[in-house]
Design brief:
By secondary structure, the chain is an alpha/beta fold. A 7-stranded mixed sheet has the order 10-13-14-9-8-15-16, with helices on both faces. Strands 5-4-3-6-7-18 form a 6-stranded mixed sheet, with helices on both faces. It is built from 16 helices and 20 strands. It folds into 2 domains: 229 residues, Aldehyde Dehydrogenase, Chain A, domain 1; 188 residues, 3-Layer(aba) Sandwich (Aldehyde Dehydrogenase, Chain A, domain 2), CATH 3.40.309. The structure holds nicotinamide-adenine-dinucleotide. Nicotinamide-adenine-dinucleotide binds next to helix 7 and helix 8.
Length: 463
Amino acid sequence: MKKITSTLIEEIKENQLAFFKNHKVKGVKIRIQHLKKLKKVLEQKEEAIFDALYQDLKKPIFESYTSELLMVQKELNLIINNLNEWAAPKRVDGSLINFPSQDYILSEPYGAVLLISPWNYPFQLAMIPFIGAIAAGNTTVIKPSESAPHTAQIIEDIVSEVFLPEWAKVIQGDASVGAALLKTQWDYIFYTGSTVVGKIVAKAAAEFLTPTTLELGGKSPCVVDGTAPIQKTARRIIWGKFLNCGQTCIAPDYVLVKEGHKNELVVAMIQEIKKAFGKDIQLSKDYGRIIHQKHFEKLVQDLDKQTLLYGGKQNKADLFFGPTLVDEPDLKSSLMVDEIFGPILPILSYETEADLDLILSKLKNPLAFYIFSSRKKFINTLVQLYTFGGGVINDSVIHFTNNKLPFGGIGNSGMGAYHGKYSFDVFTHAKPVVKRSFWFDLPQRYAPYPKSLRSLKFLLKKL
Ligand code: NAD
């Protein structure tokens, strides 16, 4: 493999830009053809994709299919079926001030797009934005996460089988390669990962005024007021939390439960954990592993001096970290300051809505927000009061599976949203064009202007 140097990166980008300028990617037909080919290759490589995800994260095949491959396939289907319509020029009514004119909007690709992706859903978080970027007509460089190397390799194999390198190319490497990529001027940057690195990306992009989407993390709360069925509530929280071993950007980060319902909820949660993963969770085929030693150690550190309600089992050699429930952690502890991103679930109780507000206002702008309640007014108040990327009432995590909904964060949890049509829009510059005719001109528009505004105001109000 060639060493990734700044010169090589520049050369790859220049080749992509030349390809782009040559209008080769501007036709919708050729994009659809390639997306269809991609769909076929994904089917052929299904097993290799599952295998890579297992090697990187010990992902159960069921999770690899439902939360990775299927998501990508659904995205491809939606885009292939709608791209002609989305990409077509859109006529809009002309402004009477410009009468007569033809006004329309062209969906223009930006040019050379850089995608940087993380390790937790390493396949879909690289492929879904990639499909959007290609559908919109851009060229793309993908920098997958070095922490999921087997998945990075299968992504490279797939992309190079379907696309010319001038159109789409995978560049593998660690943070230093990511940093080198950011030194080059791109036409759009789409980044998914931590908030810390997101700020580095935003600064690098600002240098060139490059438009950017940032899909970041955060602490997603889960509010339980005790009025919804407790066992089902527990089941849905446990599922969303321990999917992918808690390494899900929209996993419930902590639970806020109304005083008086905590014990019942905790008992139900423990039952659901046992039901899902059996007595010896390390032996369960349905429970994943922590990505690497460094992240494992961070999670061990998070548990320091905490009171456990359940779990805490670990095996470093196997990167096994069992589902763990923590009782009332201090709000200043790392567990309640940083995103947990692992199988530890703090349970905090609240007495009044003012208590709830203290915590929710402190940990503001989460990527996701979950409410379990049957009280309409309570639900509506929370939904309206707090700002968050996306929310679910009476379930967790599932909103990201509907590609008719925009997926993204706000503030600390990111900017911009994608999936389905929103992906097409993210990678598209809406270019307005007005075509005038010569047969009529509003004479007042030209100097020397009329002495009084009266007649002009009268006329423009009528228009
Ligand atoms: P990370 O920020 O460490 O790395 C993500 C990517 O950025 C990797 O490809 C990495 O090589 C690259 N990178 C790291 N340092 C870089 C630098 N200085 N310059 C350029 N590139 C650099 O994140 P991670 O550990 O892979 O992912 C975990 C985080 O991602 C969590 O905070 C999680 O919440 C967030 N996340 C968000 C979403 C979302 O959709 N909003 C999805 C998944 C993960």
